Structure formats: structure tokens, C-alpha cells
């Protein structure tokens, strides 16, 4: 699989320069791109991380962390050359440079995954995360 294909969608919403940081009409123009929300591997993009700007994808189920699924997350992270850093929610970071490539959130009414769009295996990792945590019968 490949990097995420949502880069242009994200870039179209970012502040192009500090000169327009207070320009309400420029902001409204940038938000027009949200009317056509993309999906990746069938997962809807539901927004961007507030501090990190990573695209956020909704999983079609809720998630509650426990010993079994955190061990599964650590095993999956290892397959992608990552380790898990546990903060408010788990982040997958590359061993080689500590770059965050994904984060999985459980504290909403549905699980979400934040993905680094430029990560070479982003789409594959998104699919594998969804499969790893999918409840039986879903």
C-alpha cells in the first residue's frame, strides 16, 4: 500500500501565511474543501488533529483499551518498525527516528486513527489497525 492520498485536501485548509491569519473570508474560503470529505481504504476522514494536523479516520466501532489489545498494538507496531508511546492515547513512533506515524484514540463514541499522510506505509497501517481492533462479528 501507499502513503495517504489526502495531502492536497489537508494542504488546502492550512494557513498559507501569517498575513491572512486574521482574514475571516480567507478562512471561509479554505473551509469549502471540507464539503467533499475523502475516504481512505473505506474509512471516512472525520477531521484533522488539533495540534498535529494529521488526518483522522473513523473506525466503525468503539474501542476500550485493555491488556490484550495493547499487546496486539505493540506486536503490530513492531511489524512496522515502530514502538508504542502511551500518552493520553497510544502513539506509534518509528524506531529509526522517533517520528510519530499513527495514534489510536478510544475516548469518543467511535474509535479514531490519526495517520501521518507522508508515511510510506500509512494506508496499510490504517487497514491493519482497523483489523486488529475489529470486534468479533463486525
Number of strands: 7
Main sheet record? 7 strands, antiparallel
Q: Count helical runs.
A: 4
Distance between the termini: 23 Å
What's the Cα radius of gyration?
16 Å
Number of domains: 1
List low-confidence stretches.
none
What is the helical fraction, as a range of percent?
A: 25-40%
- Which series of helices and strands comes N to C? HHEEEHEEEEH
Characterise the protein shown here.
The chain is α+β, with helices and mostly antiparallel strands and 138 residues long. It has one domain. The protein has a seven-stranded antiparallel beta sheet with strand order 1-2-3-7-6-5-4, covered by helices on one side. Helix 3 packs antiparallel against helix 4. It is globular, with a radius of gyration of 16 Å. The model has no long low-confidence stretch (mean pLDDT 88).
Spell out the blueprint of helices and strands.
Elements: H1 7-11, H2 24-31, E1 39-40, E2 43-48, E3 55-58, H3 67-79, E4 82-86, E5 90-94, E6 100-105, E7 112-115, H4 122-133
Antiparallel strand pairs: 1-2, 2-3, 3-7, 4-5, 5-6, 6-7
Amino acid at each position: 500500500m501507499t502513503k495517504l492520498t489526502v495531502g492536497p485536501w489537508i494542504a488546502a485548509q492550512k494557513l498559507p501565511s501569517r498575513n491572512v491569519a486574521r482574514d475571516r473570508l480567507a478562512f471561509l474560503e479554505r473551509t469549502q474543501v471540507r464539503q467533499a470529505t475523502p475516504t481512505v481504504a473505506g474509512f471516512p476522514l472525520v477531521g484533522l488533529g488539533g495540534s498535529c494536523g494529521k488526518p483522522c479516520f473513523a473506525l466503525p466501532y468503539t474501542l476500550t483499551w485493555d491488556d490484550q489489545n495493547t499487546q496486539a498494538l505493540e506486536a503490530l507496531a513492531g511489524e512496522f518498525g515502530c514502538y508504542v508511546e502511551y500518552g493520553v492515547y497510544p502513539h506509534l513512533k518509528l524506531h529509526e527516528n522517533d517520528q510519530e506515524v499513527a495514534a489510536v484514540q478510544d475516548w469518543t463514541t467511535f474509535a479514531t486513527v490519526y495517520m501521518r499522510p507522508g508515511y510510506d506505509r500509512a494506508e496499510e497501517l490504517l487497514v491493519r489497525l482497523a483489523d486488529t481492533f475489529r470486534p468479533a462479528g463486525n
